[in-house]
Sequence to fold (151 residues):
Amino acid sequence: MFRAGVDGRWLYRRLAAVPGPGESPDEVARRISGTSADDPATVVHSTSWRHRPEGQVVLTYAVCPDPAPHLPAEELPTLDIARGKAPATPTPEQIDVVNVAGHAVRHLAFLMATDAVVCRALSRHPSIASAMEGLARELAPALQLAGNAAR
Fold:
């Protein structure tokens, strides 16, 4: 769950759950965040997946804005993402929670710039929209490349 802090800084809460019988990953994300499927002002979006050595696949969802902003949250010090060593080896040697959270915020910024539904939902929240605008300026070269590739 993400919220914008002072000066465009990001804060997050991390929750984890396993799907119940017949429950989809989207439903799990909504259940543990306390978000309903018909909420027009909250984005629930799968931002990444990774394989664990134990044979599990971990899906990461971003929920924005945080449906429970009164609960304690961690400050996201940077938006650094973990990267593999080469283009054909995308899995990083180590992935920390802050890397996953940073990737999720960047993913949301990309969606806000390219997805009208996400933009409409997040624009309802001035602090989120302002923080996303700052991030979009930072990501502008990558967004331009994505736009050119789509043409």
Q: What stands out?
A: The longest strand covers residues 43-51. Strands lie at 2-4, 10-12, 43-51, 57-64, 74-76. The chain has a mean pLDDT of 90.
